Each structure stands twice: as structure tokens, then as C-alpha cells.
Amino acid sequence: VLGKAELDQLLADRERLNEDLQKIIDESTEPWGVKVTAVEIKDVEIPDQMQRAMARQAEAERERRAKIINSEGEYQAAQKLTDAADIISTNPASLQLRYLQTLLEIGSNQNTTVVFPLPMDVLEPFLGKAGGSHDGRPAPKPPKPGPRPEVPPDPLAGEGTEPPADLPPSKP
């Protein structure tokens, strides 16, 4: 009976195995008039090599479950970030709100340096006056003023400098 059972059954189904043993013993002892009242598997000794293999298997199963739980958590976090990105893309005010919340979190710490990210188009006028550009290179120097080139007369304006009477005067 015990040799036919798998290890998991030996460890988990002792009651059923005890009953099977009782039936087999009763078949052998009944012709003699003997009745065995109790049969019980008290201990199952497993070889050390088998115990180590079982421990490795159990450890591998725990690691597998931990990886599954971890990956499910990462998946849920990615879903939440995707949802947040969708909300921010449809409502720019929510990005400003998040920006202000981040500033509050930074302000609650004992940090001494706070960096305020600004769009580069806000800083470009200042960078040009300071002799720099937004990519770190020196700003190009403006061209030197020289003699103004002659501007040919506008062929659409007519021969004279006065506009035709039916047109409003042009702004200089």
C-alpha cells in the first residue's frame, strides 16, 4: 500500500492509507480468527537526498509565487501611470496641480537646493542678452550695421509715391 502511494499522499492522506492497510491485514488475519483493531502509520522517513530535493522544490515554488506577485504589482503600477498620463494629456491643469504638489513635497524636506524647471522658451530672451544660448554655446553675434542697401521702388505702388485715390494710405 505504501509503495503504491506517492509521497504527497503519504504525507497528506494518512487516514485513507490507514484504512487500506486495515483491510489488507483483516483479509490475512480473519481466517485465523484474529481481529486487528487499529493500524496506523506513525512516521514516514524520507531519505536526506529526497528531503533536500523537496526543500529545493518548495523554495523554487516560493520564488515563483513572489515573482508573480511582484510582476502583478508592477503591471498595476504601470496601468496607474498610463491612466495618469491620459488624464494629464486631456487636462493640462492636472499637470499644474501635480507640479504644485511636488513643490509642496520638496518644501517639506530639509533640502537647501530646489530646482524649478522652466520651459526654455521662457529663458531664451535672457540667454540671448547674457551672451549664451539654450544649448550652452555662445550666442551668435548680431551683424554689424553697415550702409543700407537701396530699396527699389515697389512696382505695385505705381509710378509716384502717392497711392491711388481709391486705396487707403499705407502704414509706414
Quick structural gist:
The chain is mainly α. It contains 5 helices and no strands. The mean pLDDT is 77.
Word description of this protein:
The longest helix has 43 residues, at 48-90. The chain is mainly α. The N and C termini lie far apart (112 Å). It is 53% helix and 0% strand.
Task: Output the keywords.
172 residues, rod-shaped
Run of helices and strands: HHHHH
Radius of gyration: 45 Å
Number of strands: 0
| SS field, number of helical segments | 5
Query: What is the rounded distance between the termini?
Result: 112 Å
Protein structure class: mainly alpha
Strand content: under 5%
- As a percent range, the share of helical residues equals 40-55%
What is the mean predicted local confidence, pLDDT? Answer: 77
Would you identify the regions where 5 or more consecutive residues have pLDDT less than 50? none
User: Can you tell me the overall shape?
Assistant: rod-shaped
How would you sum up the major sheet? Answer: none
Give me the secondary-structure topology:
Layout: H1 7-12, H2 14-29, H3 48-90, H4 92-108, H5 120-129
Helix pairs in contact: 3-4
